[in-house]
Design brief:
Distance between the termini: 31 Å
Strand content: 15-25%
Structural class: alpha+beta
Number of helices: 12
CATH class of the largest domain: Alpha Beta
CATH topology of the largest domain: Alpha-Beta Plaits
Number of domains: 3
CATH architecture of the largest domain: 2-Layer Sandwich
Shape: globular
Helix content: 25-40%
Radius of gyration: 23 Å
């Protein structure tokens, strides 16, 4: 195990993609095994911040004192089981490496956070999701087993289906024989398809789900077993442009309903793996990188549909009919007929966050971005509300993202300090509107240190105290993930 004590050696361990300033630590531990993680926990003094690839945007991996434990060396893919269709991997395995390894075996791991350089342990700790969550759900839906080191250095393994809460309570036994009794929070989660706000809650909770999305506050994930699916044999995809926003939104509703009907067995055909959205400002922002994009469009949709040799032609016809029925600009739209075409479309999707970051750097300001998801019935009014406020504000902005799940990212791009203040004020209004309409304040990025006050607005003091009680059961001295998710005053 590597132990760093010189401040000059800490480097990137004091920051993550949130760019929160002021990170500080006394020591950095870099263990190579789960046993060494336990040793590091026992050797560390005071609070412990868990470090993975540090791709998170809410400051979860930024330490403010105490020790850092980096899981980067737990990077072995232990086993790919073709019979059980699972993969077992260390917490430090890079997502892109895992996906390549299982695809080489004819298998497929669907969760696809935008940043593929993240580590598997981090995706489980944050219940990461992405574009393909529209069809496959979030990371939680694929976790079958996890191994953890707890705050006192004890260890535990939890398999899905083995420990279910009864009467709101869970009882677990660690590898040393210690019993842990925990009460599951009682708040009601929002009725949305994507949510990364706090611990799971309610009756009949599986113990494994308490740790998925717990953001390093209950235990340190060292190894995971993940379910896989057979690798799709083919795909149909395209970036389709619209001159009218209303036609685009009607198309999204129709594609969503058709996909749900197919999954429910009520029909056969359209079943989108993802439905992504770009507003007109997004198209304008990346026009320099993609001059072939048509001008004067109100927005675009990027879709993917998995296919087989038997149904490829029928699915192309079904999608074509759907787009033509909603006045899509078919002659100017792009459809993938090869892997190179598909790669270009994904490059188009990923070019937007890059362009946003470039604009932010040029303006010498910080991006202010939303991460809210809404129920089906309130999403249209939320989008109308936000767009109205944005247009009247005079601020530069783009709206893009996972519209299939009613989850869009609004990125505000202030040009100076005055605009930054106005942008933060708008962000607060969007948070309040999302909560009022039954949405979540964080659909995929988590809470971390940046959004704990919004979690309070969403759930209130009573339920934050319930979350604190749950943490106390596993971490009585509140060592793990200090400042993450739960405001210090509740601890």
């Amino acid at each position: 195990m590597i132990i760093k004590t010189e401040k000059s050696e800490f480097g990137d361990y004091l920051a993550d993609a949130s760019n929160i300033p002021g990170g500080a630590a006394e020591r950095v531990f870099v263990p190579e095994t789960a046993e060494e993680v336990a040793e590091a926990v026992k050797a560390a003094e005071g609070p412990i911040t868990i470090s993975g690839a540090r791709t998170g945007t809410v400051g979860g991996a930024v330490p403010f004192g105490g020790s850092v434990i980096s899981l980067e060396k737990l990077n072995s893919i232990v086993k790919i089981d073709r019979d059980a269709i699972t993969v077992t991997a260390g917490a430090g395995v890079i997502l892109a490496d895992l996906q390549k390894a299982v695809e080489a075996e004819g298998l497929y791991y669907p969760p696809d956070p935008t940043e593929w350089s993240c580590q598997i342990g981090g995706t489980v700790a944050t219940n990461a999701s992405g574009a393909r969550s529209f069809k496959y759900g979030s990371t939680r839906d694929f976790v079958r087993k996890i191994s953890l080191v707890l705050a006192d250095g004890d260890t535990i393994s939890i398999e899905r289906g083995k420990h279910i809460a009864e009467n709101g309570k869970l009882r677990l036994t660690t590898h040393s024989g210690r019993e842990i009794a925990a009460k599951v929070p009682t708040y009601r989660k929002p009725d949305v398809r994507k949510d990364a706000c706090g611990f799971v809650s309610g009756e009949g909770v599986d113990a494994i789900d308490l740790f998925i999305g717990s953001e390093g506050t209950l235990g340190i994930i060292t190894e995971v077993e993940l379910a896989l699916v057979p690798k799709p044999s083919g795909s149909l995809s395209g970036i389709v442009f619209f001159r009218e926003e209303s036609d685009l939104l009607d198309l999204v509703r129709a594609a969503r309903e058709a996909s749900f009907a197919t999954r429910a067995g009520r029909s056969e055909g359209i079943d989108a793996a993802l439905i992504e959205y770009f507003d007109r400002h997004s198209l304008d922002l990346i026009a320099e990188k993609f001059p072939e994009a048509p001008e004067g469009m109100a927005g675009a949709v990027f879709f993917e549909q998995e296919t087989t040799d038997d149904n490829e032609d029928a699915l192309f016809d079904a999608w074509n009919e759907l787009f033509e029925g909603h006045n899509a600009e078919m002659e100017q739209s792009w459809f993938a007929v090869s892997e190179n075409d598909l790669a270009k479309m994904r490059e188009f999707r990923h070019a937007l966050p890059v362009a946003v970051n470039e604009r932010v750097v040029r303006n010498k300001q910080k991006k202010i971005g939303t991460d809210m998801a809404l129920p089906d019935e309130t999403f249209p009014s939320f989008l109308d509300y936000c767009r109205g406020k944005l247009d009247s504000s005079g601020l530069e902005y783009v709206i893009f993202g996972h519209i299939g799940d009613n989850h869009l990212h609004i990125n505000l791009l202030p040009k100076d300090d005055n605009e930054a203040v106005r942008a933060r004020h708008l962000y607060g209004r969007f948070i309040a509107q999302s909560i009022m309409l039954g949405g979540t304040v964080s659909a995929e990025h988590g809470i971390g240190k940046l959004k704990s006050r919004y979690l309070y607005v969403m759930y209130g003091e009573r339920y934050l105290n319930e979350m604190a009680d749950l943490k106390r059961a596993f971490d009585p001295e509140f060592r793990l993930g200090p400042g993450n998710m739960i405001d210090r005053k509740y601890l």
